[in-house]
Amino acid sequence: MNIEHRMSLREIVGGLADDAGTLVRGEIRLARAEFDQKTNRLITGLVSLIGAMFLAYAGLIVLLLGVARALSLAIPLWAALLAIGFIVLAIGALLALGARKALAPSGMLPDRTAANLQADAAVVKEHAA
Predict the structure, then answer these.
(1) DSSP assignment letter at 109
(2) Among residues 57, 39, 35, which one has the least CA distance to residue 47?
(3) How far apart are CA 66 and CA 84, in angstroms?
(4) Model pTM above 0.70
(5) What is the pLDDT along the chain (129 residues), one digit of tens a residue?
(6) How far apart are CA 30 and CA 120, in angstroms?
């Protein structure tokens, strides 16, 4: 009877070790998937930011050409140049705001993994007590 008790205890300990290994592997897979998602978001944000910078630069050039033309000639062409410059600058500003939101540090944290690890720790503490 004592040998059977040891075998079942051994099986329980082995099962716990297997379950712990499965849990750790699952958490690692979740962390990796979440990291990949955050990395893709970071790349998208950087591409948007670069695009916003180019548009803002082009807008500044057009705006400055409009101002220069308006000052030198004072004809209706300046109004068109200014309008185009403001439109390009507005688009660049909108892209920059979107990129800034995508690159916010709070968006880079693995929230689901942290929540799962806290839940797992609570379950382990509950069963250990």
Answers:
(1) S
(2) 39
(3) 9
(4) no
(5) 455 555 677 777 777 778 778 888 888 888 888 888 888 888 999 999 999 999 998 988 887 777 667 666 556 676 777 777 788 788 889 999 988 888 877 766 677 777 777 887 787 777 766
(6) 13
Q: How far is CA 40 from CA 50, 73, 114, in A?
A: 15, 49, 20
What is the enclosing helix (H) or strand (E) of 92? helix 77-102
Phi, psi (5° rounding) for residue 77? Answer: -60, -35
| 107 three-class SS | helix
DSSP code per residue over 12-79: HHHHHHHHHHHHHHHHHHHHHHHHHHHHHHHHHHHHHHHHHHHHHHHHHHHHHHHHHHHHHH-STHHH
The answer to whether 59 and 88 have CB atoms below 8 angstroms apart is yes
- What Å distances lie between residue 18 and 13, 41, 98, 122, CA to CA? 9, 35, 45, 19
